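Quick one, tokens below. Sequence please?
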């Protein structure tokens, strides 16, 4: 478990003055940087710079929140799944997301934060969650499209996180990625069924869902590298292994071939193969929309946070009962 005493924290400087950094702190930072440069993994009990710890708490907690909020758009369709098989698959997928949230909250807790603090930060707007979950799920085809594109984007982003320099996060990501792979396949298979065996109306429904989810999916990777304040440091520390733009490009290149096989198109006339780059070019991304949604003004932000707030409040008695039970058990153990 992380302890404060292990920090190699740089003291705050008075305004206009250089911070006083002890030789011991500088040496601890140098040892840490050397471990990172040697490709070593950092464990919870190892010394680490305070900024490294904070960056991880920010990213891992936001990732956990995304998994949990991500259950909401899909939960909307459990009672309306078209067959028993589709309903069972959807239920399993949503339960997986809950599990991912739990592994990730547990990984963040190894850094000295608590589930309660992380939840407070989500509910009072200090912590973010993925922009993608602020869009509505209007038809059954949205379930397949989320699996294909949203989980597909998540896998592209998360596979490199299995090699994140912080070992508890990397270990959680290995299991999460295996499950995400099933999520992506079930989505693509549901869409293939509608496209190949469905009616004209079902094929149109799939194309409509793809039209609505394409741009938000490629925004999931975050702002362009030159506007990403965290990427450079996170890559130096081996938290992020591949930049936002590089991951977005890999995703787009893979998705084009999958769309062709499926028989759908993407709503971007600028999406063309560039022979010289051996990659696809794409049209301009509406970053104003992205920042609006991240800032709380997307189509479903209020609804999503409202649902999380309600769940947290309605679960208060369970947390209280669990704490009371633990206290009683401890008292009994001490008496014995
Ligand atoms: N949405 O400097 P940048 C899932 C924020 S869950 C909202 O590039 P960073 C799934 C960013 O936090 C998918 N905010 O940041 C679940 C930062 O703000 P703060 C979630 C975003 O951290 C259920 C600011 O913009 N995946 O897969 O270096 C069903 C500047 O960005 C977004 C993860 O969380 C966004 N899309 O890079 C299906 C993976 N993008 O924090 C699927 C782990 C950026 O400074 N996270 N921001 O206030 C990461 O890989 C990185 O945190 C990100 C952002 C690539 C997301």
């Amino acid at each position: 478990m992380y302890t404060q005493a292990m920090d190699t924290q740089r003291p705050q400087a008075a305004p206009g003055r250089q911070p006083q950094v002890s030789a011991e702190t500088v040496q601890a930072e140098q040892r840490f940087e050397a471990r990172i440069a040697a490709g070593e993994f950092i464990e919870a009990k190892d010394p680490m710079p305070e900024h490294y710890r904070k960056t991880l708490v920010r990213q891992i907690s936001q990732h956990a929140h995304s998994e949990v909020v991500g259950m909401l758009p899909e939960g909307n369709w459990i009672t309306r799944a078209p067959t028993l098989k589709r309903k069972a698959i959807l239920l399993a997928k949503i339960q997986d997301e809950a599990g991912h949230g739990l592994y990730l909250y547990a990984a963040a807790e190894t850094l000295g934060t608590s589930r309660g603090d992380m939840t407070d930060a989500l509910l009072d707007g200090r912590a973010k969650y993925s922009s993608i979950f602020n869009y509505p799920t209007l038809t059954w085809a949205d379930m397949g499209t989320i699996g294909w594109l949203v989980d597909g984007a998540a896998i592209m982003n998360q596979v490199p996180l299995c090699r994140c320099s912080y070992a508890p996060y990397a270990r959680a990501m290995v299991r999460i990625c295996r499950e995400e792979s099933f999520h992506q396949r079930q989505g693509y298979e549901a869409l293939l069924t509608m496209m190949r065996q469905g009616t004209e109306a079902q094929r149109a429904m799939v194309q409509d869902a793809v039209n609505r989810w394409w741009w938000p999916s490629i925004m999931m990777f975050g702002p362009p590298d030159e506007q990403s304040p965290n990427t450079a440091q996170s890559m130096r520390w081996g938290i992020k292994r591949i930049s936002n733009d590089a991951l977005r490009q890999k995703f787009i290149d893979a998705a084009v071939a999958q769309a062709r096989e499926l028989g759908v198109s993407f709503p971007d006339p600028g999406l063309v193969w560039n022979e010289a780059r051996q990659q696809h070019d794409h049209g301009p991304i509406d970053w104003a929309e992205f920042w609006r949604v991240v800032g709380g003004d997307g189509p479903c932000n209020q609804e999503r946070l409202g649902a999380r707030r309600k769940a947290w409040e309605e679960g208060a008695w369970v947390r209280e009962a669990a704490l009371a039970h633990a206290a009683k058990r401890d008292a009994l153990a001490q008496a014995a």
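Residues 167-197 form the longest helix (31 residues). The chain has a mean pLDDT of 94.
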